[in-house]
# Entry
Amino acid sequence: MVAAGALLVPALPGSASAASAPVEPVAAARPTPESPVSGKAVPALRGDAARAAAGAELSAQVLKRGEEFQAGHEQRRASADAVPLPPWSGSLHSVWGTFPTVVSDGAQATHTVNPGISIPSGNPDVVYAPTLVPSGKTCIEVTTFYWQGGNGVGAWDWCAASPGFAAVAWIDSTFLSTYTTTFQGLPAYEVLDVQTNALTNSWTAYLYNYTTSSWDALFTSADPVKLIDPHGGWSMFEVYTEYNSATGEGYYCTETYGTQFHAANLQVKLNGTWTALTTANSSVTPPGSVSSTDFGCYGLSFTLQTANSHWQVSH
# Structure
C-alpha cells in the first residue's frame, strides 16, 4: 500500500497553522520541529516533472545506492593524498558522513547550499551534499544535488511503487530568499523530515520558510510496510565521479574548488523526544581518517565540527 501526494500537508503534532509576520532571513532564529506549519507547499516540480528534471542518470544512481544501503553494504577504500590518483573507468562512488544507528521517527538538520557551483554540460559527475534519511522506515530522502542539469533540493520517494524523485525545487534566487538563512557565511536551508502518522507510516519533508516563519511541505508519502525496516539512516556527502584525464582527478573537482558543504544541528526523534546525534546514537562512515583521493579528488578535507551532529567537507 502506497499513498503519496504532492500537496498533502499534515500539521505537526502540537503545531499551529497560522504564519507570523515576515522576517529577514539573515541571522534568523533556528526553527524547531514545533514551529508552525503553513499548510502550503514548497514551489517545486512534482511527479513526472520532477523525475524528468532530475534525469534518468540521477535516479539510477540514487536507486542503486539506496538498495546497497538497505542491504547493509558499506564501501571501504584506502589510499593516500600523496599517491597520484590512478585512472579509473566508469563511475567512482564514495560517501562520508554520520549514520544514525537508531530507528527514529524523524530528523531535522541545517544544510548549506552552494549556488555558485556550475557543472557544465558534458560533465558526468553528480554531487549529493548533504543528503538526509532519518531511518530505514522513512519514506522520503531529502538531498541537495549538483549536476549538469542544475542545482536543486529534491525529495526522493522510497515508498513509491517505483522509487524516484517526487519533488525538485531549484536553488534559484526565489529559493534563496525564501528558504535560506546564513550559516557560517553560507546560505543554508532547514529541513524537517518527520513521521506524521505512525499507523500508516506517513512522512512529510518540510523546508522552513524564513519569510513566513513556518514550515512548508516539500512532499508527503506513506507505506506501513516500511515500519518493520530495522535500519538506521544517514546524513552524508556523496559523489559519483568519472576520471578526467585532463586534470588527473574527478570532473567535479574543478567546479567545487573553494566550496564548503555542511550538515549541522543534526537531531533525530526518538520515542517522542528530539535528540542531537552523538557518538552514542550514530557512527561515522567510513570510520577514522578519510583521504580526499578516496573521492577521486585532491584537496578535500573532512571535519566533524561537533561529533556527530555537524560534519563539514571543504575543498
Q: What stands out?
A: Residues 48-70 form the longest helix (23 residues). Helices lie at 48-70, 173-179, 252-255.
